Amino acid sequence: MTTRDFGLTETQRDFRSMAADFVDAEIAPHARDWDRAERVDPGIVKRLGQLGFLGLTIPEQYGGVDADLLSYVLVTEELGRGDSAVRGIVSVSLGLVTKTIAAHGTDEQREQWIPRLVGGDALGCFALTEPGTGSDAGSLTTRATRQGDDWVIDGAKMFITNGTVAEVALTFARTSDNGITAFLVPTGTPGLTATEIHGKLGLRGQATAELTYEGVRVPDAARLGAPDRGLGIALGALSRGRISVAAGAVGLAQAALDAALGYAAERDQFGRPIASFQLVQELLADSAVDLRASRLLTHQVARMADAGAAPKEYATDASVAKYHASETAVRVSNNCLQVFGGYGFIDEYPVGKYLRDARVLTLYEGTSQVQKLIIGRALTGVNAMT
Q1: What is the number of helices (H) and of strands (E) in the chain?
Q2: Which positions ≥6 away from 209 have C-beta within 8 Å?
Q3: What's the pLDDT score for residue 138?
Q4: Left (φ > 0), alpha (ψ -120 to 50) or beta: where does 4 sit?
Q5: C-alpha separations of 271 from 261, 274, 277, 279 in Å
Q6: CA–CA distance from 306 to each of 55, 240, 303, 314 (Å)?
Q7: CATH numeric code, 10-121
Q8: Is 152 helix (H, G, I), strand (E, B) or coil?
Q9: pTM of this prediction?
Q10: Which residues of the chain have pLDDT under 70?
Q11: How far apart are CA 276 and CA 265, in angstroms?
């Protein structure tokens, strides 16, 4: 099914085309092997940097690429079409870490980290989630204690994308009873240990880790933003990040639908292609409609940001897009697996991986239930969590 591009500029179409070519040549052919090995080719990170995909929307003075958010969304969608594990690497390192440093860092912090991150010479990880606090980010227990000109961090983080391969961990720690502070912690700092998590249902090619902080000492120069203001930094990053997750979900759903359409045209049953059966067409039609709606919602919120809306002004729209697109990715990949029948249940065919990868999209960067709470609060003015 042809992707509609009404309203896209020539530059935006060029970004999408470049990403699509890269995905078709260097990602999609290897996605199954990376999934089986639980590891993407490390060289793909440098290629992402060389193509500018790790620097989209970042100022050129730091090696970034002059691009609007919709261009970033279009690239992210294509990466999601190729392999959600690769898309996740970019969404976290660029979307959550590099963009946050660009927005809140000092000149020294930007010069220290951003050129390496956008060039693919380093990756970042976003160390917010803890073993006991997922959706309830404000209740984290990792603590940073001031000692002279330094801070000493103790605690643990869980489900951290890029955790074992990152060179900097954007770490959020409690610094007072009511305050959380952000720190840029080099992962080679003594006392910081990363342990990879194996056996994941999906996103197997993407490194996911538990981080342990035991007396991790960093200078005050590593602090990102003002003391006790880190939660706002984290939530702002997540609002932007949800747009990226939505875009990746759209790309995954598109890949699943493309695979099912191809298979339905080739697979014969009862003397004719299964694409001619009404109930198969129903599965495909439902998937296509859901996919189009998710794409429109995602592009809409990107356009809001590009038009100058502040993060707090489009936060609810980001939740709407993330909720709809992530749930759509699950429905569409499930429908498309049904089209494949028994062959969809083995990894010689791609749709099983799409379904496994889609499932986590409803969990991270705010579960679907959290997105509903955000949307409901915006509609009613009532905080249902209190």
Answers
A1: 12, 10
A2: 125, 160, 162, 163, 164, 194, 195, 196, 197
A3: 82
A4: beta
A5: 18, 9, 11, 16
A6: 17, 12, 5, 11
A7: 1.10.540.10
A8: strand
A9: 0.94
A10: 1-5, 385-386
A11: 8
DSSP secondary structure string, 276-316? Answer: GSHHHHHHHHHHHHHHHHHHHHHHHHHHHHHTT--HHHHHH
Radius of gyration of the chain (CA): 21
| CA–CA dist 30, 35 (Å, integer) | 9
Domain 125-228 has CATH 2.60.40.420: no
Residues 119/67, Cβ–Cβ less than 8 Å: no
Domain with CATH 1.20.140.10 in the chain: 231-380
For residue 6, the one-letter residue type is F
Span 45-84, pLDDT tens digits: 999 999 999 999 999 999 999 999 999 999 999 999 999 9
For residue 145, give both structure tokens.
């204690």
220: three-class secondary structure by DSSP: helix
Place of tokens 């690769």: 86
Q: Is 60 a catalytic residue?
A: no
Closest CA to 140 of 92, 176, 98: 176
Q: Could you tell me if 23 and 78 are in contact, meaning their C-beta atoms sit under 8 angstroms apart?
A: yes
Architecture category of domain 231-380 in CATH: Up-down Bundle (1.20)
Catalytic-labelled residue, pool 78, 130, 327, 365:
365
CA–CA separation, 367 and 322 (whole Å)? 9
Contact by Cβ (8 Å): 260, 287 = yes
Instruction: Give span(s): CATH 1.10.540.10, the chain.
Output: 10-121
**Dihedral (CA of 110, 229, 57, 91) sign:** positive
Q: How far apart are CA 35 and CA 9, in angstroms?
A: 35
- Amino acid identity, residue 66? D
Q: Which amino acid is at 254?
A: Q
Beta bridge partners, 218, equal 151
**For the segment 360-375, what is each residue's pLDDT rounded down to a tens digit?**
999 988 899 999 999 9
State the Cα–Cα distance between residues 2 and 21, nearest whole angstrom: 16
Q: Residue 1 has what pLDDT?
A: 47
What is the reported pLDDT for 134? 75
Q: Mind giving me the DSSP string for 311-374?
A: HHHHHHHHHHHHHHHHHHHHHHHHHHHHHHGGGGGSTTSSHHHHHHHHHHHTTTTS-HHHHHHH
